[in-house]
Amino acid sequence: MAADWMILLPYIFLAGGGLFIFCAAILRPDASGLYFAIALASVVLAGIAAVFHPPGINFGGMIDAGGYARFFAVLVCVVSSFTLLLSLRYAEKKGIAGDEYFALILFAALGMCLSAGATNWIVFFLGLELLSISLYVLIGSSHDEPASNEAALKYFIMGSVASGFFTFGVALLFTATGSLNIADSLSNVQAGVSALALFGLSLIATGIGFKVSIVPFHLWTPDVYQGAPAPITAFLSTGSKAALFAALLRFSLVMSPELFSYMTPVFWGLAAITMIVGNITALAQTHIKRLLAYSSIAQMGYVLMALLTVRHDGGASVMFYLAAYALMDLGAFGTVALLSRGGSDIDTLQDYQGIGYSNPWASALLAVCLLSLAGLPPTAGFIGKIIIFKSVVGAGFIYLAITGIVTAIISVYFYLNIIVTMFMRPEKVPVDLAFRVDPLGVALSGCILTAVILLGVLPSPLLSLIERVLYSFRI
Amino acid sequence: MLTVIIFLPLAGALAALALWHKPKICRWMSFSVSIADLLLVASLSFGGLRTGSAGSWLLLEDHAWMESLGVRYSLGLDGISYLLIFLTALLGALSVLVSWKQIEEKVGLFHFFLLAMQAGVMGVFLATDLFLFYLFWELQLIPMFFIIGIWGHAGRIFATVKFVMFSIAGSLLMLVALVALYILRGHATGHYTFSLFMLTGFPLSKTAELLIFSAFLLAFAIKIPVFPVHTWLPDAHTEAPTAGSVILAGLLLKTGAYALLRFAFPLFPNAARASVPVLITAGLIGLFYASWIAFAQRDMKRLVAYSSIAHMGLILIGLAVWNSITVSGAVLQMINHGITTSAMFILVGMLDERTRTRDLAEMGGIWGQMPIFSAFFLLFAMSSIGLPGLNNFIGEILILVGAFATHPGAAMIAFGGMVVTLVYLLRLVQETLYGEPRSEFPAMWDITGREAAILVPLALAVLVIGFYPGPVLDLMQGPINSIVGGGIGRIAALP
Prior knowledge:
The complex is a heterodimer.
Chain A: H1 2-7, H2 9-27, H3 32-51, E1 58-59, E2 63-64, H4 67-94, H5 99-117, H6 121-139, H7 146-177, H8 182-187, H9 195-211, H10 220-227, H11 230-254, H12 257-283, H13 288-307, H14 314-339, H15 355-358, H16 360-374, H17 380-394, H18 398-423, H19 439-457, H20 460-474
Antiparallel strand pairs in A: 1-2
Chain B: H1 2-18, H2 23-44, E1 57-66, E2 71-78, H3 79-102, H4 107-126, H5 130-139, H6 141-151, H7 156-189, H8 196-199, H9 206-223, H10 232-239, H11 242-267, H12 269-274, H13 276-296, H14 300-321, H15 324-355, H16 366-369, H17 371-385, H18 391-406, H19 408-433, H20 449-467, H21 470-484
Antiparallel strand pairs in B: 1-2
Helix pairs in contact in B: 1-2, 1-4, 2-3, 2-4, 3-4, 3-11, 3-15, 3-21, 4-5, 4-6, 4-11, 5-7, 6-7, 7-9, 7-10, 9-11, 10-14, 11-14, 11-15, 13-14, 13-19, 14-15, 14-18, 14-19, 15-17, 15-18, 15-20, 15-21, 17-19, 18-19, 18-20
């Protein structure tokens, strides 16, 4: 039985770290450096534990312990550790560093790992709620800023409604199939697909659609992304989306072919409209965080497009793109965090004029991440896009692929516009007087930048890892 | 070896970035890197390039890269690409010299982009894997975006965004077409590959071939640029710094024509054959229309830019007619255009540095003030017109003679187009060099040593190709015969 508990080690590290921070805060209040250290150590330990997992398949039929869950656990841990590092200076400057800030990041990470790894609807729901509730608080953590409070409230209300949809959907699916096991309930819809199960599944898809901001459930996204503190926005847009898409991919992989064929036109339409609305709306934005919010909506459209093709080779495309997307959005929102002084984040496009010369590393990071989001080589985003288009064209969704490429062409314009602002418009503040990113920030920028380019030039190790993970998943 | 030739400039680019705060060292470093690259390219010709053996590929490199996608890192050098990478290395070194005084700000960054672009262009000319080709194809674009956008003139942002949007629209559609081709072949044979050699000759259905070919054609036509999609070019040229114009006209436009020759036509022979009338018409329209507009220009740089479109129109005709004579002419003309038009842009840039204007109305009587400069100006203008004995004449005559056999009408009209070229270029020369000075410019000085070092190699190239084109033509003969003959060259060296 000992080995069974070892399976839970990553989860234990995350939960234990969070609780430990709360305990430490009782003994040593206001030691934010200490909380940060504990949080970072727990995330790193959890990540290591997830990599060197003892072999196990399942924990009590509730949590997947195979390669698939571990892949996403590691991804979440990487994202969380970058979020923590980005937060270190940022939270001090804004005066929001405290035990709850760092502990809640750990709990949210735990929620993400749970929802990516759950094989039971109840566990998935636990993960979903854990990550949502932690994020509600984190989004509102700049108490003095009305925008932050508004964002938290908005996300809370929207998120609660989404959870309601989701729970009802699970209840209906349970009624229709008599099982709370995800794989059983989705694959055992035999003798024709029952209307009840389909209705339940649509409600579940709606609930998750809210969380990963698929059009038309995306309306909260720009406001929340703009209002939340920048590192939290980075965390929200990468970690929670990767985890929930991981769940969505799991559902699609285990779904019976009949059921999936019912979902295909739905996904098709949602993917097309998400890419179109996301990219076109982004054209009109004048605030970086809103622009990136719409861009992230559009990016989810591309992932959804790949999700359509899981019956062919889409699973690998989804997983690779999620990893690439996590890196590049982390870099993009991370730059906003790095460049922000106390007070509100720098957000309007004018604030970025000439920043390329006062902060070369941070702006190089932003530029590369934007080029990557636009899908230009030699970046992770390019490989991600080419793999997605390979799957989509290969599965015969030609019109969807063309929609995707046309919207991608449109998107190049607004991504370039930010780069133009950073490097080509005259400086607003003389370079000598401008704000400069601290050395830690420079190191982080260099790190993410290298990762984005490296993944674009040498994607093979990650791709073969994903292939192996998916292979083990199918068995 | 080929890898070194591509990545030496890239290493130089990174070094330039590291030397951000030392502009002087940075210039010397960039110059020596590009000269070293030029020497490397030149040294290839001692390794038996002129043996004239049966195979058209002289050097091949092939390594596994992204196994699961069937992407290989494979490069190939034949006579055509040898000439073009030689041109690339030469113009790369000259661009550093050209920018010596013109670029004063952010010197490190400028040389980073300049050298990175050189690497990208080299890659385009050498790649034989379509994925790798696409990678380099985009890689040459981004640095140019920055070079125009940061160091350009007043309207630079509009110009550079327009340039990039045109290029990206073309290349992303090409990417989908490329993926479609890859999938179709993969489904049919079970072997997924981006290799040019393996994709050539794969039979496609008629519609699929036409659609995929159109996407490729659009991407390349935008780059060349062919008549209806040429509008980005005058803006980009007008706003770019001189080195940007040199690279743009001398190299980036060539990549479009080269890609048409190397990839689009051999991969889709039936669709290409079907589109010949369209291509010839577009080439003719480009020739006349651009000449006509060039005649109306007051801005010298815009005039040269339009003349560039007209010349590329002729090259397109040469490629479209698709026999070994016209294609030889087209390839030779690609080299010639790279030399002559770059030189014209450099000269206009030098004049701009002295007079601070490019307005034809303010020029005049330059010969009296700067005789050596004017002699060069006249030489390159004559070369551009196609004066016998100079380089352009050979290329143009090959295209026209070759085209006459199969498309006499088009050849005759194209000949008329060359007369039009004569008109606006003579006007340019006359208004600039001769007559009375129309404005007082405070400081006019003749060619400096650095400027002579730029112009003399180009002038020599003009004369050498004009009088003795034999070796150059020999070099491209083998590959052209095999490409036009429907093959893609001997690939014995491949595993």
